[in-house]
Amino acid sequence: MKKNRVTITDIARELNISPSTVSRALKDHPALKRETKDAVKALAEKWDYQPNLLALSLLNRKSNTIGVIVPEITSHFFSAIITGIQDVVGKSDYNIMICLSNESYEEELILVKKLLNMQIDGVLVSPSSETDDFDHFRKLQKNGIPVVVFDRDCPGLEADKVLVDDYSGAFQAVEYLIDRGCKNIAHLGGPLNLSTTGHRLNGYLDALRKNNMPIRREHIVHVPGFSHKDGIKPAKKLFQLDNPPDAIFAMNDNIAISAMHVAKKMGLKIPEEISILGFDDEPHSSFFTPTLSTVWQPVYSIGMLSARILLSHLKNKDNQLKFRKEIFKPELVIRNSSK
Amino acid sequence: MKKNRVTITDIARELNISPSTVSRALKDHPALKRETKDAVKALAEKWDYQPNLLALSLLNRKSNTIGVIVPEITSHFFSAIITGIQDVVGKSDYNIMICLSNESYEEELILVKKLLNMQIDGVLVSPSSETDDFDHFRKLQKNGIPVVVFDRDCPGLEADKVLVDDYSGAFQAVEYLIDRGCKNIAHLGGPLNLSTTGHRLNGYLDALRKNNMPIRREHIVHVPGFSHKDGIKPAKKLFQLDNPPDAIFAMNDNIAISAMHVAKKMGLKIPEEISILGFDDEPHSSFFTPTLSTVWQPVYSIGMLSARILLSHLKNKDNQLKFRKEIFKPELVIRNSSK
DNA sequence: TTGTATGCGTTATCAC
DNA sequence: GTGATAACGCATACAA
To answer: Which residue numbers delimit the HTH lacI-type domain (chains A, B) (predicted)?
Structure first.
């Protein structure tokens, strides 16, 4: 039932002029008679002519579309980054195509292929937690498509990167706990082959080392995912140890919330008996009881900067050679879940 | 620096055959010599040929892309709906283009125009809270683009609709509060010209009426937005009344959380002195103290069904005439923030 | 079994 | 001032 859209040729035919004249009239070409222009514009208006961007893309060999690959969007973290991206890209003449990898390497491969086929002009990506091979991103680059990696690093991939100093965030958090007198600080870490997981773990370890605190293997537990339910079992495991921790540094706010939940259920007092510290500073985090101490990340800025870098490459095709690496500093936000 | 991608013509030239043969070989046309097919496929593989979807779209006059217009994605509500949409559409040969209106009518207009120009094949939309004129959606339909409206209704627009029975959700919630002995039930309502706001307000009012409870104008306050901060002032306003409420039915969980926050600060005991009930059942809601009673909506299903309906229209171009209207039943989830 | 011609909608280039 | 033509990459009806 699809009506044929009005094309430039339709208008040309009706007005007994050539399609090129119509095209020129619509673009206000200086060397056209006023009457012709007016007639074309009037009819275009009347018939509600809409230019076919597909034809233009094919002609110009660029789709004016940017692909954004993220693991998921239900967390505030990625949805806020995307909002930042959108706010920047929306002001340009590019569109964004948001793609969800569902934390799956397989799906990520398929998405990259699809974006390639769609003649996407550039890609912003935060790899899935399964991804540890980045050839699919290199393939994009080989096809002349600039790639900007954000939040989760792709070690070994040469590309623009907008990251957060997770190491520093973790270090600050753990050293703070130490300063406040915590002696047994446990860590609920993220899925293993994620750059952020490693950096936060290292920050945790180095903070302990620097302060001559013992590192206990059993105090480091990695959770399988990023949601509340993923934190319950690991938290219980920690509390049931012979030498249970007096503080927990969790890989994100969701997991921290799970840990608080478990601690409360077990009758532990927060922060008197157990300090809990998260990562991300989600909007809800200041509404829990006790309010959650956490590490804030500039999510919106991460999105904006990533988009800006990509757009700058898209404008000047020349300086593709030097890649930028921008690292945001996270900030400790102390509330009431820690001593 | 964009390298020219390999085209069907490149392969044809190399193999001294015609582009059409290459095209056929790639599609396993039955009437082709095995050798030719193999040679083409081998070279396509070797050169990593990628079909240009843009050219195909132009040829077929369909982009295989579905536009999704939502007010925002930072809330769990919309991001979960989108995840549902993606999970369905991802299994088809369509892609989705997610567009954020930022709750702005103006931006929504621009987005619709852009989607039209991009030759989008179908649209899934939840209108902005400012939108009360739907001609831009009718324009899509006039161009043969099926439109499915989800969650927020567009009164007067004839289109497929996937909604939630907000009235029933609100009615259940308020009647529950009445059953539990609440005498002064206030309502923190949403922005005014939103269908959901109206339906929830009506559910609230009817529950009061049915139970012969007085309706107090001053107990109905509309919040300006959907986030925590938007609820603080309105909640304070309610508590400072001469006859403060003993229960609050809030338009969403965020606002309910704000109200809990304010109540606690004022030293009110929840639920003994004040019952609080939200709407949405966000993942965090069972982790607040007290855990939040709320109305659950099948967010993921809303997304999936909307996508399925749109896809079915896209497959069979015929039955565009009768529009479906699907209404999900929300469910009351009682936790500890209500008596 | 394969090649040729055509068209999808637009614009740049050259011609008149 | 305006028209004709070619080109973007692909698929297909029609020829051969």
So the answer is: 6-60
